[in-house]
Amino acid sequence: MSDFKLLVTGCKGRMGQAVIAAADAQGVAVGAGIDVGDSLSAALALSDCVIDFSSHHFTDELISECLKLGKSLVIGTTGHTSDELARIKEAAKTLPIVFASNFSVGVNTLFWLTRKAAELLGPDFDLEVLEMHHRLKKDSPSGTARTLVEILADVRRLEYDSDCRHGRFGDVGARTPKEIGVHAIRGGDVVGDHTVVFANVGERVELTHKASSRDTFAGGAVRAARWLHGKPAGLYDMQDVLGLK
Length: 245
Ligand code: NAD
Prior knowledge:
The protein is α/β, with parallel strands linked by helices. It contains nine helices and eleven strands. The protein has helices spanning 14-25, 40-44, 59-69, 82-91, 105-121, 143-156, 160-163, 215-228, 238-242; strands at 5-9, 29-34, 49-52, 72-75, 96-99, 126-133, 164-166, 180-186, 192-200, 203-211, 234-236. The strands form two sheets. The protein has a six-stranded parallel beta sheet, with helices on both faces. Strand 3 (49-52), helix 3 (59-69) and strand 4 form a beta-alpha-beta unit. The radius of gyration is 19 Å and the shape is elongated. The protein starts with a strand and ends with a helix. 39% of the residues are buried. The model has no long low-confidence stretch (mean pLDDT 96). Bound molecules: nicotinamide-adenine-dinucleotide (NAD). The site of nicotinamide-adenine-dinucleotide has 25 residues, from helix 1.
């Protein structure tokens, strides 16, 4: 077993359960797990690093307690507000934090390919991102779709907040070359599908990733916790963990 112990927050949820199984498979000890109504401070005292797949509403409290006790954090939860994102960035000046909208090797390769394709295809190609998830997913668009749009916006020198177009309804007029469309589909038990469309007149390129198991995210999050152990304070992502930077 590992020389450090994990606290799994959101331990009764789909991802929490998958993380506990992945920790066991990778020989990493789980010191505690908490869900709604459990004491965070008591559980933190039993652990060295938190893996969080709960709710973004919990992020403020989680970060405050981790700062008090000096615990490192792997954050997989998505759907944060800009204030919550700012809080994570600020905390990473003091704590080592891996924050990733997606922990799978395949999706992180998709991130890399998306940047390359956007650079190679250039501004004549219209950019759209499609994502599909199970019917119970609460936030929209997915954190992964958001990351894909951020990568595209970075290459095109656009801004997520002003240039991202969430779906289309009614008399919206023709598409502008600047906008990046993002569309969220919900249904069934889909673990997570993402497609980036690069469309020009006469041709179209599509990059697609489909996850068929949560184990890929959970295994990646445990891998991130192992990588983070002993690292200095800083805000890291899965590209750092996988050495893709
Ligand atoms: P889920 O609803 O199955 O599980 C969430 C769990 O967190 C629930 O058991 C809930 O009771 C618990 N929870 C909520 N608020 C809490 C609080 N204040 N304190 C403690 N526990 C609390 O959801 P899920 O499918 O497991 O997803 C959880 C989060 O992880 C979502 O934000 C989802 O988008 C994200 N996610 C990220 C990745 C990734 O690779 N980064 C992959 C899948 C899901």
